[in-house]
Amino acid sequence: MKKLNVALLAGGNSSEREIALASTRMVYEAFDKAKYNVFLVDVHGRHWTCEGAGGRQVEVDKTDFSIPVGDGKIAFDYAFVMIHGTPGEDGKLQGYLEMMGIPYSTSDTMSSVTTFDKTLCKRVVSGVDGINLAREVLLRRGDEVKPAEIVAKLGLPVFVKPNASGSSCGVTKVKAESEIEAAVAKAFIESDAVLIEEFIAGREFGCGVMITGHGVQALPVTEIIPHKEFFDYEAKYTDGMSDEITPAEMSAETSAMIQQAAIAAAVACRCRGIVRVDFLLTTVGDLYMIEINTVPGMSGGSIVPKQLAAAGRRLSDVIDEIIDDTLCRR
Amino acid sequence: MENCNEIERLSIAISGSPEDVSLFMERGKAYFRAHDFGHALDDFNQVLLRDEANMEVRQYVKMINEILEYRYKDIYNP
After folding, report:
1. Interchain contact, A63 vs B32, CB within 8 Å
2. Which of A192, A231, A209 has its CA nearest to residue A86?
3. Do A63 and B55 lie within an 8 Å CB cutoff?
4. Residue A78, phi then psi, degrees to nearest 5
5. Omega within 30 of 0 (cis) for the link into A87
6. Could you give the ipTM of this predicted complex?
7. With an 8 Å Cβ cutoff, is B36 touching chain A?
8. How many independent structural domains does chain A possess?
9. Which of A57, A254, B36, B54 could form a disulfide bond with B31, CB atoms 3.0-4.6 angstroms apart?
10. Distance CA B52, CA B55 (A)
């Protein structure tokens, strides 16, 4: 059987670029090289580069998704997307790959657009039983910021976050009305819209979900205990800044409730491949969805690889399953 | 298939009510879901002709242009 030429798309343009590169190294190692020729492609703005013959960096030809090799070229058969944030998680890359007829590993364009836009995602998930959503105020660029009205509606503290971004970049926990405007300005650096949400006190959990033609499977739940005020960029990616316990210490019923909610949210948003859904669980047992990540972290310190290990699944088998599923659906 | 039926249904509705902006909006989204970005752009531009400030449509148009640029900027500026 012909070996597939897989472009492992890494990097990206967002503040999550470094995280995406770390994830990619682990995924690259996990690919079964007997089945796949894996080419690491660094996507940075319009410059997509790949290591060609002799270790030389060559530019990917995006008119046919190939790289030059000597007098010929290698055309990629498949794209495995490991880019967090834009353009790997917001639908742009998926749109390009659809246009080129290249099968890829993630949720499709519309699903990625939906999940990356936090407000839109909440709208889609709002009808799902068992999932609560924090009350919010949405600001578009150019809107007047009215701190008093925001506090009157949501109370304090509030979370101010970019409406379309990841890894908690640009997120601030605001405790005083006077801090709202600065936090909004910081969030606007990351996104054209800013979401302000009421503070929900509770334990934080992440749950991976695999959706392929083989079925839908929720992975064991992870509890995230940040040593900072909340699970921000530093807490996520600095050793010792948070404890992540997999499987989370909780009753089987609570674990099942979170897994069912994760599946329901991912299905409602028409996700495919492997995604991670994050929640807060209040002391009275109400479950609030935070967000869905359609390209979850896959570095050594990331949550999903630990959940896969806890479920007894090897990353290489998961990669095979995702690729087989995508090819079968074509 | 689902999108094809929806596009067909919306096209019939548009021919009966060509001034109804919401129909262009819905068909634009259906084209987008079907990855037919050229037709989606046509419909979203129809919406912008009548509702220039529509933020949702502006976001779709911006995104489609970025998607198309990946390929076509390389064709025209190799």
Report:
1. no
2. A192
3. no
4. -155, 145
5. yes
6. 0.84
7. no
8. 3
9. B36
10. 9
